[in-house]
Amino acid sequence: MITRHNPALPFTLIAGLIALVATAPTRAQVSLRTVVELAQRNSTSVRIAAADVAKSQAGFEQSRDVFIPSLNFNTGVPAFPEVGFTGQPPSIWNATIESLVFSIPQKHYIDAARSGWKAASARLKDAREQVALDASNAYIELDAVGRELEAAQAQETSAARLVAIEQQRAEAGVDPLHALLEAKLTAANLKLNRVHLEARAGTLAKQLATLTGLPVGSITPDHASIPEIPQIGADVKEITLSGIDAARLAARAKQQQAKGDQETNYIPVLGFFAQYNRNTTILNNVNHYFANDLPANNFASGFNVQVPLLDMVHRAHGRESAADALRATVEAEQADHQNEIQIADLTGTLRELDAQSEVAGLKQQIASDELKTVETQLETGNGAGAGPGAPAQMSPTQEQLARIDERQKYEDAQEAELNLAKARLGLLRALGHMQDWLNELHAR
Fold first, then answer.
1. Please, what sign has the CA dihedral across residues 195, 185, 368, 165?
2. Helices in 172-241 by DSSP H: which ranges?
3. DSSP secondary-structure letter at 274?
4. Which residues of the chain does CATH 1.20.1600.10 include?
């Protein structure tokens, strides 16, 4: 059988490898500042809030510009010659100027639109701060889980050595089978813990990818890029949250809107108009119906005065607006009370987590010192000799157990620090000092 060499095959394989490398996600260290900025830029809630700001600004300009005269130009030529009296002078083109001159209710509508614009801007700031908090929490947690995962892998290595040691001791009849089974159970539990951490890291990687728009698994946290979180407490001066500020401004807008709707029923409105018509008699016989020929140039102007006498529809609308304003005011008060409760809850939780972090850190230090003691005794002996009453020499089994325990205490300390960091960030947000954290990020 004769085989033929295909000269295009190497190029095809190279092109396939290049495509595979290009499509595979690459992991690189990305700073927390970059993650937060990408999350704020990619967030749908931020983009929706930005669209609301643009809409509110346009609404404010629309309500304000009713006092600016508007100019409309119309033109038209009859499709067929007109016959008879059509009811209006025939014109080639006309121009109209209209504007509102005086309206106290409109002043309230402008104020309401301005407050609505400010409320939308406050909601945009609140959305950006919330996205920054979510991205920071996910980033810090992924960084902590990464260190915990390294410790879990070290634990599995020690557990594998422990199983091997107990296997040899069981076969030699030194230790019972129960000790071997206990070692295997320890290894299985550590494997379960490692799998749990890997799943948790995968979820956080997906969350960060969704927040930033980067490929899943392409972000490796840079621990040095995480600023120290300020140790803030409830005694720090509280700044009004942007979300609460937005609720208050929205309530004020509703109140101003309701005031304008109510005064519409009692206060006259003054408007101005001016109109110019360029009339024509080319395609019509309109001059047959007038004593004098129709003039070509026609101009009219005047003031429109609207005096409300009896308008039950607007009165009912005024009561509806007043009810909406009352509801918005109560909702703003409710948001303020809920934030105060959250501050009190976070303050108590923060104190507890601070104590837990201290305890976990001390346990980790104790476990590390005990591990050093075990390693020293394995190398030099316990120094008490082998006489009656002397403590037993350390065994390799105890060394691996000490290593596993030290790494476990390290994981516990990392988890305690993570919970403390997230609680501090939450309290920063509740107290209105989230911008301080963002300033720390931008300073790096």
1. negative
2. 177-212
3. E
4. 31-68+105-267+329-377+395-442
Please give the structure tokens belonging to residue 410. 């390290």
Asked whether 326 and 252 are in contact (CB, 8 A), the reply is no
Task: Answer yes or no: are the C-beta atoms of 303 and 282 closer than 8 Å.
Answer: no
Question: What six digits make up the tokens of 241?
Answer: 């949250």
State the Cα–Cα distance between residues 57 and 63, nearest whole angstrom.
Answer: 10
Q: Please give the pLDDT value at position 383.
A: 52
- Mark residue 297 as left, alpha or beta (left: phi above 0; alpha: psi -120 to 50; beta: remaining): beta
CB environment 274-283: b (16+ within 10 A), e (fewer): eebbebbeee
Cα–Cα distances in angstroms (integers) from residue 38 to residues 52, 121, 210, in the given order? 21, 20, 10
**What are the tens digits of pLDDT across the range 355-367?**
999 999 999 999 9
Distance CA 36, CA 129 (A): 10
What's the mean per-residue pLDDT of the chain?
Answer: 85
What is the pTM for the complete model shown? 0.80
Do the Cβ atoms of 94 and 277 come closer than 8 Å? yes
User: What pLDDT, in 10s, does the model give residues 38-77?
Assistant: 999 999 999 999 999 999 999 999 999 999 999 998 887 7
Band (pLDDT 50/70/90 cuts) for residue 3 is: very low
Q: Are the CB atoms for 253 and 115 separated by under 8 Å?
A: yes
As a dihedral over the C-alpha atoms of residue 251, residue 255, residue 260, residue 265, rounded to 10 degrees, the angle is 130
**Which pair of structure tokens corresponds to residue 279?**
């009339």
Q: What percent of the chain has a predicted confidence (pLDDT) above 70?
A: 89
Tokens describing residue 213:
């728009």
3-class DSSP assignment, residue 100: strand
| Top-tier CATH class for 31-68+105-267+329-377+395-442 | mainly alpha
Given a cut of 80, whether residue 235 has pLDDT beyond it is no
Rg (CA), the chain: 39
The Cα 393–Cα 396 span in angstroms is: 10
Rounded distance, CA 46 to CA 125, Å? 8
Beta bridge partners of 304: 271
Confidence of residue 154 (pLDDT cuts 50, 70, 90): very high
